[in-house]
């Protein structure tokens, strides 16, 4: 691979759902063969193969897939990698909540959070991620620690990973109006996103109104964790959509999880999806975390459902849908490395992003970019940044069958050094 300057990558496979402004005959997978010309860190042109000869000196990639760098719109890099010192005792959601809460109270100093965040971001960067939104546990007094750390980390990573943060707390925390207003101001000062976890509390509607009021007052987008449960009575996705409509909210709203929707009767589902579409909500599914936590049984019986929400039905209604990493090596998910190819591979299997593939590749690229308001991210286009990943695979079955550990990540036209951090770097944070 060339190292910067001007060059042409010839004979690459591009997925047409990710190349606005470029058109060419596609194969049954949705790919077209193309040449990509790069100059001064930008894509200068994308040309269909066969219309002209590749220029002399072009690097022939033999039909390998090239995708734009990934956008990971739902992560928790403040929680990441605490597993060795605080495992989930039984793999349940409550086990995760309690273990994480105890670890946060005892161990989340600024240094601890900063080092684990940096570790996570080095993983994401090496795997080809260009933008990432993290939630930040913001239960007092953690917000005073984690938000300044996040601002420093965001500055350090500028130009490599575009970072966003959303505050995270159970919506019951909104009852303390003065504290919540202070938090909203803090989030606004950091250019953040206002986020809460919704549950079916008796005063949920009033609390949602408080959340929307603060978002409107401070000009914030919203990001919810909703209905991460198999309990059919969990309908907070619908409540969020209704609150968005009656508050006339005009910002972006992203809702994560929405697992219980997949367990509800069809008529209820249709009503909820109508409201979600009308309110302009976007939904992100976290398939790996859902598979891990949902339907976890304490009686040594086998899980019977996949835990994910109704992404196909949502997409069919024009609701923007994404998939993302969620947790990594913490009590909510024992595994994971912020590798969005892994997320896409797992999503393909769990959620059937195949036969046809259609435009599902947008769910890890251009769709999350749009809902994070990141222009030019998640697509490949002439005039755009030369930020892309060159894979070995030449079609979906090749791409999604192996880990693609030898993928090439190009940023600003240059191949980056893909060095995954050694777990031993965090060993001193895991003792005691
Ligand atoms: Zn989450």
Brief synopsis:
32% of the residues lie in helices and 19% in strands. It has helices at 93-107, 110-127, 142-157, 177-189, 204-218, 236-246, 266-279, 287-293, 311-316, 340-351, 366-371, 396-401; strands at 7-15, 31-39, 42-48, 59-60, 66-68, 70-75, 129-137, 162-168, 194-198, 222-226, 253-257, 282-285, 321-323, 388-390, 408-411, 414-415. It binds zinc ion.
3D structure, described in words:
By secondary structure, the protein is an alpha/beta fold. The chain folds into two domains: 6-69 and 378-415, Urease, subunit C, domain 1 (Roll); 70-372, Metal-dependent hydrolases (TIM Barrel, Alpha-Beta Barrel), CATH 3.20.20.140. The protein has helices at residues 93-107, 110-127, 142-157, 177-189, 204-218, 236-246, 266-279, 287-293, 311-316, 340-351, 366-371, 396-401, and strands spanning 7-15, 31-39, 42-48, 59-60, 66-68, 70-75, 129-137, 162-168, 194-198, 222-226, 253-257, 282-285, 321-323, 388-390, 408-411, 414-415. A five-stranded parallel β-sheet has the order 9-10-11-12-13. Zinc ion binds next to loops.
How do the strands and helices of this protein lay out in sequence?
Blueprint: E1 7-15, E2 31-39, E3 42-48, E4 59-60, E5 66-68, E6 70-75, H1 93-107, H2 110-127, E7 129-137, H3 142-157, E8 162-168, H4 177-189, E9 194-198, H5 204-218, E10 222-226, H6 236-246, E11 253-257, H7 266-279, E12 282-285, H8 287-293, H9 311-316, E13 321-323, H10 340-351, H11 366-371, E14 388-390, H12 396-401, E15 408-411, E16 414-415
Zinc ion binds next to loops.
């Amino acid at each position: 691979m060339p190292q910067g300057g001007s060059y042409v990558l010839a004979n690459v496979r591009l997925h047409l759902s990710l190349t606005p402004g470029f058109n060419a005959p596609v194969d049954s997978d949705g790919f077209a063969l193309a040449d990509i010309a790069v100059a001064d860190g930008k894509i200068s042109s994308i040309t269909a193969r066969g219309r002209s000869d590749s220029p002399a000196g072009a690097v022939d990639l033999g039909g390998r897939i090239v995708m734009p760098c990934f956008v990971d719109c739902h992560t928790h890099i403040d929680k990441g990698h605490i597993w060795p010192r605080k495992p989930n005792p039984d793999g349940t959601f409550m086990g995760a909540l309690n273990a994480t809460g105890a670890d946060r109270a005892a161990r989340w100093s600024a240094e601890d959070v900063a080092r684990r965040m940096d570790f996570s971001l080095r993983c994401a960067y090496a795997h080809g991620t260009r933008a990432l939104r993290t939630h930040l546990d913001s239960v007092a007094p953690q917000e005073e620690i984690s938000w300044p750390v996040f601002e420093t980390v965001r500055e350090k990573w500028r130009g490599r990973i575009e970072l966003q943060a959303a505050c995270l707390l159970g919506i019951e925390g909104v009852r303390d109006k003065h504290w919540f207003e202070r938090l909203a101001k803090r989030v606004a000062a950091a250019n953040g996103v206002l986020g809460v976890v919704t549950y079916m509390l008796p005063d949920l509607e009033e609390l949602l109104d408080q959340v929307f009021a603060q978002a409107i007052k401070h000009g914030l987008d919203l990001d919810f964790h909703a209905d991460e449960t198999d309990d059919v009575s969990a309908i907070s996705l619908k409540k969020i959509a209704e609150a968005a409509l009656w508050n006339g909210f005009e910002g972006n709203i992203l809702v994560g999880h929405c697992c219980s929707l997949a367990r509800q009767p069809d008529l209820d589902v249709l009503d909820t999806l109508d409201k979600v579409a009308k309110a302009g909500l976007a939904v992100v599914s976290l398939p790996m975390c859902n598979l891990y936590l949902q339907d976890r049984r304490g009686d040594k019986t086998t899980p019977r459902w996949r835990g994910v929400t109704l992404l196909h039905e949502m997409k069919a209604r024009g609701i923007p849908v994404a998939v993302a990493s969620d947790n990594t090596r913490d009590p909510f998910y024992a595994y994971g490395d912020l590798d969005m190819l892994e997320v896409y591979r797992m999503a393909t299997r769990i959620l059937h992003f195949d036969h046809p593939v259609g435009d599902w590749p947008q769910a890890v690229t251009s769709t999350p970019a749009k809902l994070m308001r990141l222009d030019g991210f998640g697509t490949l286009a002439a005039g755009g940044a030369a930020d892309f990943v060159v894979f070995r695979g030449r079609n979906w079955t090749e791409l999604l069958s192996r880990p693609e550990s030898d993928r090439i990540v190009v940023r600003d036209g240059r191949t980056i050094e893909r060095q995954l951090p050694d777990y031993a770097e965090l060993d001193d944070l895991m003792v005691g």
